[in-house]
User: What shape does this take?
Amino acid sequence: AVPSAAFSATASLLDELDKKFLCVLRDGRKLIGYLRSVDQFANLVLQDTIERIYVGNEYGDIPRGIYIIRGENVVLLGELDPMDDQSNHLSEVNVEVILEKQQLELEQKAKLEQERTQLLLSQGYQPEPPDEMHG
Assistant: This one.
């Protein structure tokens, strides 16, 4: 059974249909699209969806079309003001450029994590096993 508080919060989203939203997913992806449907489990349907990737002061948008999101994967959902362009201090770059920069950023993070683990091992600490959700 769905708790009544969760149901009323989800039901209040019905008043927000056809508005533009930013949805941050558990895996870190950021989706922007028009909310078209929501159910009692907070599953969402976004239309005209883009996946926005940020690296430093740059961003790139990947068109995704209609996107169905399982409610348990939503970390944050917020309405975007259509009159306020939040990206005015950022530079938009094409998809290939932002994907390449994202890959470099991920490789740098992995290298730093590997160095950190080696340092901890050299001092006798045992690293924690990777978290399945964020691994």
Q: What stands out?
A: The helical segments are 4-12, 95-122. The chain is about 25% helix and 35% strand.
